[in-house]
Amino acid sequence: xxxxxxxxxxxxxTLRHRLGLSQEKFGQKLGVVFQxxxxxxxxxxxxxxxxxxxxQRHLEQMGDEGKDLLEKYFKQ
Length: 76
Description:
This is Helix-turn-helix family protein. With 76 residues, the chain is mainly α. The chain has helices at residues 8-19, 23-30, 34-41, 49-61, 64-73.
């Protein structure tokens, strides 16, 4: 994974908005609470490796809609 700590807030917020989800609903998809998503988006904490893998999987499942984020943040 090549996403950097400074890029995480933008990645999380952009993905969440594309999915049309609140921080609470996005957290439920990833198995975390609202406050965790809020902390990620505000740069206070960063997702665990497992959470980043779930985020990457969501982007892969989005097809063309998530392709640009996948390439930008998870380029191999």
